[in-house]
Amino acid sequence: MNQNKTKGLLFAILGSVLWGGSGTAAQFVFHHQSIDPIWLVGVRLLTAGSLLIVYSFLKNGRKIFTIFYTKSNILWLILFALLGMVPSQLTYFLAIKFGNAATATILQFMGPLFIILALAVGSRTLPRRIDVISILVALIGTLLLVTKGNLGSLALAPLAVFWGLMAGVGQANYTLIPRRLLKNFDAALVTGWAMLIGSIPFAKIIITNRPASIDPASILLIVYIIVGGTMLSYLFYLSSLNYLKPDTTGMLSSFEPLTATLLSILLLGVHFGLAETIGGLLILTTAFLQALPTRKKIV
């Protein structure tokens, strides 16, 4: 294995692990400190967005403002912020609030399947055979995960399931909407501005819904969620794309739910039975199914 590929693998795994850890950290502050998820999302967007813009400014100087030179760029940036960035983060944190980090991260991992469906509808073509298989495998896995094998009832709170699936939809929007912008602008810059714009609706909540008191452990975890679980995880993951193919990074992103699950079990006492374990593994399998090469028809 060459040095560049090793570096890419390290960046992709580290970025995914940092993101998965942020979910477990969020679960702790939600359940033990009664932190409002909406307030935390607002603070996360504002702070992480500011850090990414500073990073981009140090890298590119005043070029960071060129994204606002055309109306179409501004429109796509606002759409990305309000329909991609905010929903993907808010629904994920709400899924953790009403459930736990492990199941929320696994359900969010279904985002690529929503992308498959959206692209099929947009292009008016049927999904590939491997896409259909991926969707069926993910649905079976989700059913096992949310029912713990008892198909007659939900083992998770309905709101946890709903927000977890919405997190997958938000993740799909997060991937699809900014494609035009990413052709011309650095991904860190696009994400930074989208986070700052997305934080605007939360401005009043950030000020008025501040927790009365936060213990030192929760403060450190919030700092980790913003810096490690958002800014650094994103930058590491982006850096991996310079050395690895997208399908490889997609498979390595499975370290997100694996990290969240292991940390939730080891540190927060979340129990995963056989049915949930099988269900989670089936959902993660879809990343590997999507990476399989498809045979071309011979004419």
UniProtKB/TrEMBL annotation:
Species in which this protein is naturally found: Pediococcus pentosaceus (strain ATCC 25745 / CCUG 21536 / LMG 10740 / 183-1w)
Name assigned to this protein: Permease of the drug/metabolite transporter (DMT) superfamily
Spans traversing the lipid bilayer: 37-58, 74-95, 101-120, 132-165, 185-207, 219-238, 258-289
Main location: membrane
Domain EamA: 7-146, 160-289
InterPro entries per the UniProt record, alphabetical: AA-Vitamin_Transporters (IPR050638), EamA_dom (IPR000620), EmrE-like (IPR037185)
Record key words, sorted: Cell membrane, Membrane, Transmembrane, Transmembrane helix
Coiled coil: none
Protein's cellular compartments: Cell membrane
Keyword Membrane: yes
Similarity-based family: Belongs to the EamA transporter family.
Topological type in the membrane: Multi-pass membrane protein
